[in-house]
Amino acid sequence: MQTSRLQTAVLIGPGLGWLALLMVVPCGLVFVLSFFERGVYGGIDYVFNFGNFARAIDPLYLNIFFKSARIAGLAALIALLIAYPAAYAISRAPRRHQTPLLFLAILPFWSNYLIRTYAWIVLLNREGFLNQGFELLGYQGEPINMLYNDGAVVLGLVYNYVPFVILAIYSSITRLDPEIWEASQDLGATRFRTFYRVILPQTVPGIAAGLVFVFVLSIGNFITPDLLGGGRVQMVGNLIYDQFLTARDWPFGAALSFVLIGIMMVLLFLQAVLANRAQGGGRG
Amino acid sequence: MADAPGAGGLFLRAHLYLVYVFLYVPIGVLIVLSFNEAGLPTAWTGASLKWYGALAANETIQRAALNTAIVAISSTIIATTLGTLLALGVEMRQKPNAALDALLFAPMIIPDIVLAIALLAFFSLIKFSLGLHSIVMSHVVFNIAFVFAVVRTRLRHFDFSVIEASVDLGAGAFTTFRRVTLPAIFPGVLAGALLALTLSVDEFIIAFFVAGAGPSSQTLPMQIYSMIRFGVTPEINALATIVILFSFTALFLSQRLNREVLTS
Amino acid sequence: MRHLKKLAAMTAVALTFGLSGTAGAADSIVVSNWDGYMPGDMMEQFKAATGVDGEVSLHATNEEIMGKLTAGGGAGYDVVFVSSPYVEALRNLDLLAPIDAEKVPNLKNLYPEAQDLAYDPGNQYSVPYAWGTTGLCYRADLVSDEVDSWNDLLAPSDDLAGKITMLSTERWLMAAGLLAKGYSVNDTDPAHIEEVRDLLIDAKGNLLAYDDTTFYSKLVSGEAVLVHAWDGWCNYGIAENGDIKFVVPNEGSDLWVDTMVVMKSSENKDAAYAFINFVLDPANHAWVAENILYKVPNQAAMDQVGGALAESYPNMGMTPAQLMDMELMRDLGNAQKDYTRASTEIMAAQ
Fold first, then answer.
1. Is the CATH number 1.10.3720.10 carried by domain A58-278?
2. For residue C131, which of C323, C325, C282 has the smallest C-alpha distance?
3. Tens of pLDDT along A144-186?
4. Which of C93, C344, C347 sits opposite A43 (nearest CB)?
5. Please, which residues 212-271 of chain A have a Cβ atom closer than 8 Å to chain B?
6. What is the ipTM of this complex?
7. Residue C19 within a domain
8. Domain span at residue C63?
9. Are residues C139 and C210 located together in one domain of the fold?
């Protein structure tokens, strides 16, 4: 028991130390700011009060939060539906093909986010490649504008984050014993039943992690809403950015961030509990 | 997909191909735009090779690309190591701990701008000098959380008794890790590392805040976003084209090499 | 656990490396600017002329460099390029060093108007680098009616609706509404701000998109036919398509000024002044006008190149007197909060 406690400390220590020093302490300093006020020119007036938190629970900000949570959630679900079968197919490929297939999925994302987004604009805009293609195929009507709406934002988010879900699910799916199919089918189970009762529960941690990745990365994103959404869709990332950098109101930005971080923590915590339960009570 | 026969296997394979098409279509457009005559980001005006020439002559961009590679690779190595150890430690404990979970979720949720300002204020408070190393240290913060989350999915229901057995048989901790634990969790570690690398390559706002002044700690995203005001030129598309084609070739060659090693 | 030791050693190396990192060399400066806003070989020429080493750092937006200077106290930077409202804020946060006019003799090249701008009369803390205004940029071949009012943007005719973009950068977004209503671009009356917010929410329905970065590209492709634009950026569209025109609406507009400031934390202020002096050299400043297609407040430079540029890009011919008719954008002080709130409400509206 002693050794195992020591072992745990050695394993966990460096990572936790890093986060304590470079996340908890610095963010703690910013958190303290939320009890003060913005100075006239954007500095800090050290007058202790809770006013920023009262401002932060305004329906305006909560509505933005829930609207962006809806878009991020939708993106996460679609990304999952695309990524799950893809990750599954990769995990069933011959062993020596698996690593290259994974690389192939992530490689487009070593270009730059901004120019990938520009590429989507070139494809989808009213005068874009897709509309020109439709015209060549004989389409005669008004060009179709596929950009600057919620759908385009969801598409952009799904595109950029699908590979992350593939990675997360691949990680959890490869621990399945390949003989699980045969064993289950020998016992007379149908393919669907095997998948639903045996495979799926085993990959719940990967699904949960993948969903969380897309959700948190989407809700904090501002390039896609700005460029593909035409600035009509406001995400949490944008909201916080504006308070810190445009309004230069750090105290309020800090209060708003921590309220929203709190809400997301609760959501993620519930997600973890549900994922655990879906797996059959989690580990003993 | 040799062992997934029948209609199901066929469907899976078709789906996978379609996913790759989806992932690569914008990349095709991006490559086409690298030959765009005018410096317009979203309108095609005619073909030209001039942006490749401009890229070859632009030392600032080349340096930024090198800096990005240094930052991404270093932060990936550190975060993958720390995140994997964390995942092992947390899963071995067997006891759920909500505070620990929250702490490890936090770097994913904290808005980038908050972390950026917090880190810069902290670094200047303790008079820590800024440079590429401070960007690496800051990228490790969020990358740890992502690596941890991926590796952990692999460790659920992991049978830790094999590790104990190996130790009981007299293998040292390191040998056990290398021979038993790592092979068992390798797909998770690889997935985590790829994720970390990709996040770091694209990260802008934290890098901008914690970078030192001057080109020695300028990363590619910092360079690209600073071009927005006067137009992001197709030089960047040319660079992305080269990066993608280079990675593609490296992947292909390593496959060939692997196969030759296997067959000989 | 050998790998842990290695890791610990690595961390230790990183820490020492970090703590002992490079201190600014005695005779060198760091200049932060947008990419492409000055000649590519500027620092080499500066070195040849003065013997001082210079390095260029890049920033993407005023807001971001402002945040960085505030959080880090400006450490490491000597000269920074920012727009005029930020000069006021930086000065009030006590981050700027005064400009030593004796060490910047080329200040005399500036137009008299540029030496007496309201946010910093007498160039005490900042030196203007480029200036211009905001207006409407449109495709004359695709827009049939005359475009001359902010209302063409905010309440467009049916054939324009859905083919319009607006700037979403807060001050300029609000300015379009304020000017349409006849208010000042620095108006801080809460009732006026709310009125403008409602106007802009109504206008949102007719927009193709908000666009701050690629609107000129949208005009070239024909995706948009009328865009809210800064004069210099409209010129990028004009360069590709001669049917693109720029107009300052008859209700008036704002005057924006990009400036150079010296940080109080700079350890080499003399070299920083020498750099600013070098930029104000007519040949260097003319480069900006020719390459970036922005007007520069340097009389000697504009005398060289202004005439030729105005033939292709009419807005390059705007005189300082015409620019002075525009209203200078100022820091808002506490009213900034109301502006940010209004712009958040506009962006969040359906």
1. yes
2. C323
3. 889 999 999 999 999 999 999 999 999 988 877 667 766 776 7
4. C93
5. 212-213, 216-217, 220, 236-237, 240-241, 244-245, 250, 253-254, 257, 260-261, 264-265, 268-269
6. 0.90
7. no
8. 29-131+255-321
9. yes
**Looking at residue C74, which CATH number applies to its domain?**
3.40.190.10
Give a yes or no: residue C283 inside a domain: yes
Q: Which CATH class is domain B63-234?
A: mainly alpha
Exposed, middle or buried by CB within 10 Å (0-12, 13-18, 19+), for C148? middle
Residues of C with CB below 8 A from A66's CB? none
pTM for this model (two decimals): 0.91
Q: Which residues of C280-293 are buried (b: 16+ CB within 10 A; e: fewer)?
A: bbbebbbbbbbebb
Q: Is C10 on the interface with B (CB under 8 A)?
A: yes
Q: Cα(first)–Cα(last) distance of chain C, in Å?
A: 57
- Could you tell me if C35 lies within 8 Å of chain B, comparing CB atoms? yes
Interface of C with B in 154-183 (CB under 8 A): none
Q: How far is Cα B33 from Cα A113, in angstroms, rounded to an integer?
A: 15
Is pLDDT at A3 greater than 90 in this prediction? Answer: no
Residues C140 and C271 grouped into a single domain:
no
**Same domain? C175 vs C186:** yes
Which C-chain residues 214-233 have CB contacts (< 8 A) with chain B? 214, 216-218, 220-221
Chain B: nearest CA to C219, how far in angstroms?
9
CB contact under 8 A, B232 and A7: no
Contact C19 B231 (CB under 8 A): no
Return the SS3 of C157. coil
State the Rg of chain B over Cα.
22
